[in-house]
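Practice record 12: protein with fe (iii) ion.
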Amino acid sequence: MQDLDEFTVTDETLRQMAGTQNPRMKEICDAAVRHMHAFAREVNLTPEEWLQGIQFMTAVGQACTPIRQEFILLSDVLGLSAVVNALHDKKAKELGTQSSLLGPFFREGVELTPMGTQIVEKPTVEEIVIYGTVTNNDGTPLGNALVQVWQTSERGSYDLQERNGESMDMRGTFRTGPDGVYYFRTVRPLGYSIPMDGPVGAMVHAQKRHGMRPSHIHCLIGAEGYRELVTALYFGDDPFIDSDTVFGVSQSLVVEAKEDPASPIPGMRAVHYDFRLAKAAPGESGRVGADPTKLMKAAE
Ligand code: BEZ
Ligand code: FE
């Protein structure tokens, strides 16, 4: 029998896991064990602290509901989602529009809406237009591309928060025609605080962070044969543009609503943004994030 210490227990754990059939699963689990053990040794983790960590993760799980994904939120505020996004972008065969976080408020099943629709049921502030063309990397327009958008209201909350998941608002799904053009009306969303009433919020408070995201509109764009693009457009004059709590902003995604004679809907300020989709590699897997309802069902 071996006498294990804090170093040799790592080797023994890896030895016992060596029969893992799936090579990718083995690579991930081996690395997770090595890094977790090294982390515990580096901080000299005490039993009390370890238990506190377990309690925290338990609370994160318990905070998950069909309309709330506290684990995605945890990954977001720790920068892990941004790392996974960046790695995913780097694997692309060619560069398209930069990606950004899907976030926990994406919902599937939003009905297709005619181009130009106002996606906010009862706008109470100035309406604006968002428009542009979905193209491939050479700038050729892509017809039949699916453009899904979702955002907060002018009050800074999603329909999932304002309506408790009972009905949808501030969401749109559009299909481009042969010219690749998309356009819709909306209001400028207000920047907002990530959900702070759960264990992740408590952690963010303890870290003395503001918990805010700058004003943005989420976009999920797909076309046959192309990588699905998960991204967001960020309003550059938001006070939190340089300190996003979940690290989603990049310069190339920053926009401004302004007078624009080329806008398809005259008389409103417009944001013009063209999306470039990169060709998909065979068998490439997709998006960083998911509809929380789907994750809950998959876990059952
Ligand atoms: C969002 O943009 O919807 C979001 C992203 C990460 C955490 C919380 C919200
Ligand atoms: Fe968001």
